[in-house]
């Protein structure tokens, strides 16, 4: 079941929405270790991370935002197929959940830390929990989009968010999920620190 509500708490569930007036300030500096003659390796790496984030946020060299702000994460296109609907001819919640999980795997693979990569060390991503809310469910043959991004990663838990929008671009649903990386031999969670270093540019605070 899904419910429709316009309360402030629900509009922010399950993740806090960033204000449209939020400002991202970027800066780079010269390294004191290099006697201000050039950038150290750490500063070069910081620049790369900032450049990636600025590109995703559509921030120009001057630091001013563009006319349209690009949202974080990647977007995937879907269409509601007949086998995914119920007697109301709208998508079943189970079908939508399946597509969210599918997108989580595809997006992780796209960014280089999917199960195909983690299995080299005999590790696999496992869903810990998920919270989903829909204002409405798309009808049969309707197109919709799913946007997904990682909002936070700790030593054990990685948090991935989703936003579902209709063909007109209006948000119709949102979800958040927590994932663990489990070693298939020990059946114990892995330390995500190495993964964080490899995917830091894909973590957004939005």
Helix and strand pattern: HHEHHEEEEH
Beginning-to-end CA distance, first to last residue: 27 Å
State the helicity in percent bands. 10-25%
Give start-end ranges of low-pLDDT stretches: 1-31, 55-69
The number of strands is 5
Strand order of the largest sheet: 1-3-4-5-2
The number of helical segments is: 5
Shape: elongated
SS-derived structural category: alpha+beta
- Overall pLDDT score: 74
Tell me about the largest β-sheet: 5 strands, antiparallel
Q: Work out the radius of gyration.
A: 20 Å
Q: Beta fraction of the residues?
A: 15-25%
What is the topological layout?
Layout: H1 8-12, H2 41-56, E1 74-79, H3 93-110, H4 115-118, E2 123-134, E3 143-153, E4 158-166, E5 171-183, H5 193-199
Antiparallel strand pairs: 1-3, 2-5, 3-4, 4-5
Walkthrough of the structure:
The protein has five helices and five strands, in the order ααβααββββα. The protein is an alpha+beta fold. The chain has a five-stranded antiparallel β-sheet with strand order 1-3-4-5-2, with helices on one face. A hairpin with a 4-residue loop joins strand 3 and strand 4. The two termini are 27 Å apart.
């Amino acid at each position: 079941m899904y419910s429709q509500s316009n309360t402030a708490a629900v509009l922010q569930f399950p993740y806090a929405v960033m204000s449209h007036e939020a400002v991202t300030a970027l800066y780079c500096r010269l390294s004191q270790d290099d006697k201000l003659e050039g950038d150290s390796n750490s500063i070069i790496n910081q620049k790369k991370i900032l450049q990636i984030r600025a590109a995703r946020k559509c921030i120009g060299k001057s630091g001013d935002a563009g006319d349209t702000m690009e949202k974080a994460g990647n977007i995937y296109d879907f269409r509601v197929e007949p086998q995914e609907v119920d007697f109301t001819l709208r998508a079943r919640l189970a079908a939508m959940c399946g597509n969210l999980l599918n997108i989580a795997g595809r997006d992780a693979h796209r960014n280089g830390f999917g199960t195909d990569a983690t299995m080299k060390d005999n590790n696999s991503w496992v869903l810990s929990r998920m919270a989903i809310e829909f204002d409405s469910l798309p009808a049969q043959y309707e197109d919709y989009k799913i946007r997904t991004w990682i909002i936070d990663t700790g030593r054990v838990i990685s948090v991935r968010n989703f936003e579902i929008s209709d063909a007109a671009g209006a948000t119709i649903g949102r979800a958040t999920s927590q994932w663990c990386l489990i070693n298939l031999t020990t059946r114990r969670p892995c330390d995500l620190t190495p993964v964080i270093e490899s995917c830091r540019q894909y973590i957004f605070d939005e």
